[in-house]
Amino acid sequence: MIHVRSIPTPGTRMASLELSGMPDGSCQATYWADVTLDDRGHAWLPASLPILMRIAERATFDDLLDPVGLAGSERAQDLLIGWYPALHRVAINAETGESGSPHPGVGCFFSGGVDSFYSAIVRSAQITHLIFVHGLDVGFDDVRRGEMALAAARAAAHELGKPLISVRTDIRRVSDRWSPWGEEYHGAALASVGLLLSEHVGHVIVPATYQTPDMSPWGSHPKLDPLWSTSRVTFEHHGVELTRTEKIAAITPNDIAMRYLRVCWEGDGEAYNCGRCSKCLRTMASLRAYRALDACATLPHQADWRLLRDVRKPKHYEVVDAKAILEALAARGVRERGLRRELQGMVRRDRLWRSARRLRAAARTTLKRVRVRDTE
Ligand SMILES: [Zn+2]
Questions:
Q1: What is the 271 CA–ligand 1 centroid distance (Å)?
Q2: How confident is the model at residue 366 (pLDDT cuts 50, 70, 90)?
C-alpha cells in the first residue's frame, strides 16, 4: 500500500507531495511558482497515478480528492492499461471533497517551441495566461538553461500581450525512476501543474505534439489529457489538426514567433538553438520548405543536412516529421536535393529497423513452436 499526501510548505507559492511505502522508501517532490498554488492535493492524483500503476495495486490519498478528478482517473487507468498492458490497475482509497467551480482564466502551456507558439497564437483571443514550467523539458538541475528559457518565454509572452506564470518542479526526480516520460508521464505532469493553478485558470490548453492520423499511445494525448480534469480545472489537447511542419508554416508570419522560437534542449547550454541536433535541423528544414528560414532569428540560416545521419534509429515522431517535410518540399517545389536525400535516408533507416524487428519477432515465434514440438 502506497500513501500519497501533501506535506506542509512555507508560504502559498510552494506545494509538496510525499509518496511513502514505495519499493525504495519514501520520496517527495515540490512545485514552486510565482503565483499562489492550490494546495488541496487534487494535483497529486495525476502526479502520482502513472507511477502507482507501475508498482502498486492499492494507494491511499490523505487529501480529499475532487469527485470529477477521481472519476476521470478511473477512465485514465482504463486507457493507459489498454495502451500498456504491463501497468497495474490501482484501487484508490480516498475521500472525495466538494466540487468547485472553474476560474474564468484560460491558461496555455508555453515552452516557446513550435506547438506552444501555434496554440498561443491560434487561441490568443481566449488565453489569459501562458504557463512556463522548468523541470520538464529542461532538467530541474539545469538552472542556467532553465533561466534562459524562462527569460525568453517571459519576453515572448510580454510581446504576445499575456502574463506568464512560471512554475518550477523536481517531479521528474521521482517519475523518471518509474514512468517513461514521453510515452506515459509528461501529460500527467502538465496536468498536475494545471491543477495547482486553479486559483488563476479554470481551463488549460495543452499544445499537441502529434497530428491525429499519426497518433499512437503517448503521455499527452487528446483522449488522455481531458481525463485529468477536475470540477475546477479542465484540460484540452489542442492542435491535432496540423503536422508540425504545417504549424511551422502557420507561425512563420508571426514576427514574435520568428524572434523567440526555441526548439532545442540539446547543445551546450549557451546557444539558444544549437542548429545541429535533429530537432533544430527538422525545424530549419520545415522553415526552408516554406522559404521562411531567413525570417527566423533564432536558428542558423545555413545547415549541414548530413548531420541528420547521426539519427541512426529515428524515433516515431522524427519519421512522421521527416515524411511531412518531404511532402511540403515537393508540394512547394523547393529543390534542396541534399536535404531531401537525408530525410529519405531517415525514412529508409526506420523501415529497415522495423523489418529487422518483425524478423526477430517471427524468429522468436518459430523457435517457441519448435521447443513446444520437442517437448511434446
Ligand atoms: Zn538543437
A1: 9
A2: confident
Tell whether 201 and 350 lie within a shared domain.
no
Compute, in angstroms, the gap from residue 129 CA to the centroid of ligand 1: 27
pLDDT grade, residue 111 (50/70/90)? very high
Domain assignment of residue 55, yes or no: yes
The Å distance, Cα 263 to ligand 1 centre, comes to 7
Cα-to-chain-centroid distance, residue 81? 19
153 in the same domain as 6: yes
Distance (angstroms) between ligand 1 centre and the Cα of 224 equals 29
Per-residue pLDDT tens digits for 18-77: 999 999 899 999 999 999 999 899 999 999 999 999 998 899 999 999 999 999 999 999
Question: Which residues span the domain enclosing 300?
Answer: 264-356
Same domain (yes/no): 222, 283: no
**Strands of the chain, DSSP E:** 2-7, 14-22, 25-33, 58-61, 91-93, 106-109, 129-134, 164-169, 203-207, 234-238
* C-alpha cell, 265: 534542449
Indicate whether 231 and 282 sit together in one domain. no
- 35 and 147 inside one domain: yes
Distance 262 CA to ligand 1 centre (A): 9
**Taking Cα atoms as reference points, which of 159, 167, 149, 150 lies closest to residue 120?**
159
